[in-house]
Amino acid sequence: MRNDDADESRLRGIAFIQLPAALAGELSGLGLDPAAPIPVETGGDDLPAGPLESVSGLVSHPETNRSGRNYLATYVNERAVTADAIRDGIVGAYGAQLGGDRYPFAVLFLDAPGDAVDVNVHPRKREVRFDDDDAVRRQVDAAVERALLDHGRVEWDGARLCVFLPVRRQG
């Protein structure tokens, strides 16, 4: 959602868009706040099989998004990293809620055994690969999707994730 009147607030260097007061108040009155970050906290048996031990952090409501990946901050074992598997898992959790050129805000912390992560992909150790990238993608996807579902931001209808926002009726 793009809005020139929106303000940004920052959490660990990641901006979250704040809606104009009138719109934010209207949505909050209905129990919806697209500007509020959604906590992710998943670990152990709550994750599908794979190398990750836990996934935690914050993600944005589907309506709060940007055209670039600059606001996807991911950490593996407390190291700031980029990985296609993580990014694809985050974006995949939103399903059709994001256009092909849109990305949510996210700050995610992943814990994995050291031997499951290859940090020697890039000289600065910023880009990583996992022994099983597909499993990591599924685990991140499941953790973020569960957070979205648990916080009433989206609903699963068996085929896609749906966002329910209020509609002002004329008349």
Instruction: Name the structural class.
Output: alpha+beta
How far from one another are the termini?
26 Å
Shape: globular
Q: Any idea what the CATH architecture is? A: 2-Layer Sandwich
Radius of gyration: 17 Å
- How much helix, percentage-wise, in residues? 10-25%
How many structural domains can be distinguished in the coordinates?
Answer: 1
Structural commentary:
This protein has 171 residues and is an alpha+beta fold. It has one domain: 2-Layer Sandwich (Ribosomal Protein S5, domain 2), CATH 3.30.230. It is built from 3 helices and 13 strands, in the order ββαβββββαββββαββ. The strands form 5 sheets. Strands 3-4-9-6-7 form a 5-stranded mixed beta sheet, covered by helices on one side. β6 and β7 form a beta hairpin. α2 packs parallel to α3. 35% of the residues are buried. The N terminus and C terminus are likely disordered.
Features of the shown structure:
two-stranded antiparallel sheet; disordered C terminus; alpha+beta; Ribosomal Protein S5, domain 2; 22% helix; 5-stranded mixed β-sheet; 3 helices; 171 residues
Q: Would you summarize the structure shown here?
A:
The protein is α+β, with helices and mostly antiparallel strands and 171 residues long.
